[in-house]
Amino acid sequence: MKIGIDQISFQTSQYFVDMAELALARNEDPNKYLIGIGQKKMAVIPPTQDSVTLAANAAAKILTPTNRQQIDTVIFASESGIDQSKSGAVYLQSLLGLPRQVRAFEVKQACYSATAALQLARGYIALHPDKKVLITASDIARYGIGNAGEPTQGGGAVAMLISKEPRILALEDDSTVLTENIMDFWRPNYATEAKVDGHYSGHMYVDFFKEVFDTYQAQTGMTLANFAALAFHLPYTKMGLKALRAVLPEADALTQQRLSANFEDSRAYNQIVGNLYTGSLYLSLLSLLEKTQTLQAGDRLGLFSYGSGAVSEFYSGILQANFKQALMPEQHQAMFAARQQVDVPTYEQLFNQQLPTDGSTVELDLSHDPAQYVLAGIKADQRQYKKQV
């Protein structure tokens, strides 16, 4: 029985800041951001959106009357959780009007958790093939204003339906994993912005990729030539390019050309959104599938997942017949086209406009947020969510 990704969708905010403008405002050469980290635009998340609303807006795009009744598990993958106890998945079940007869929970391990959710879902579907699992990978990447991590911020959510006989990508049985307790990136409970050792994290990312990929090759007997494309976790797109370049010399010229060309398709969406943390790998996968003009049914894709701290995994999947028909590129392109560019002072204002941490009542202005699901404010220490018509 085939098990894998049956549907996939994406949501980000209506605002973005141009990376060249941000570079100039920080007295940096624009090419440091455009080429040095490989980013063009960065999503700016208003206070009316959080990890729950972003996830709900992404998931709503793929829900139908039929699959709503087949979903019996909701997994919320995030490192931008809104509560230390209650999962974002419970809010999600309520907002989306899913049946009460579902299990709903949250998973966390930096940017790896969506892959953990995917593997959990795969095992569950193997035992319950008549069911579907809804996974959302939803995050808002925050490092602060004016520091080295600022240009690698962003935010959004990817939603996936996992099922038997998937229409998009069937997962293969082999995967390799690696865990090591390192301090390349973390966010203490008392902090609203992440702590990161950028150079160290970049080196660890490449080292982890090389190790899990070498182990995968030894375990399966496959090489780079067996893959039509590789998709990477992309907190910024130059990081994935560095990992790819670390192994390309192992391949022949034709394979190098193919993998390099497909990498460009796989980073197109990430370049104009920024860092999604848990969703970055799966936004890259979505970008690859919706942009490609060469991939076809039967092609093998390799996926590298990395979550700082650190856990990584390399696994593969086979593209299914007519996979393009299960995608929604027009809807995603319309969302990108409707976004509004904001200048750097407006971006800074939105970044600093955070919810109170003392439980104070607040009502947010929803008039500028066109999303279906929004955060309306806080009352009695409870977030107030709203579905807009």
UniProtKB/TrEMBL annotation:
Identify the EC number(s): 2.3.3.10
What GO MF annotations does this protein's record show?
A: hydroxymethylglutaryl-CoA synthase activity
List, alphabetically, the Gene3D superfamilies matched: 3.40.47.10
On whether Transferase is a keyword of this UniProt record, the answer is yes
Record's keyword annotation contains Acyltransferase: yes
- Could you tell me which residue ranges the Hydroxymethylglutaryl-coenzyme A synthase C-terminal domain spans? 253-325
Hydroxymethylglutaryl-coenzyme A synthase N-terminal domain residues are 3-163
Q: Which SUPFAM superfamilies match?
A: Thiolase-like (SSF53901)
Matching entries from InterPro entries are given as: HMG_CoA_synt_C_dom, HMG_CoA_synth_N, HMG_CoA_synthase_prok, Thiolase-like
- Alphabetic keyword roster: Acyltransferase, Transferase
Highest taxon of source: Bacteria
Q: Give the family this protein belongs to, as stated in its UniProt record.
A: Belongs to the thiolase-like superfamily. HMG-CoA synthase family.
NCBIfam families linked to this entry: HMG-CoA-S_prok
Name of the protein described by the UniProt record: Hydroxymethylglutaryl-CoA synthase
What organism does the record attribute this protein to? Answer: Loigolactobacillus jiayinensis
List the lineage, top down.
Bacteria, Bacillati, Bacillota, Bacilli, Lactobacillales
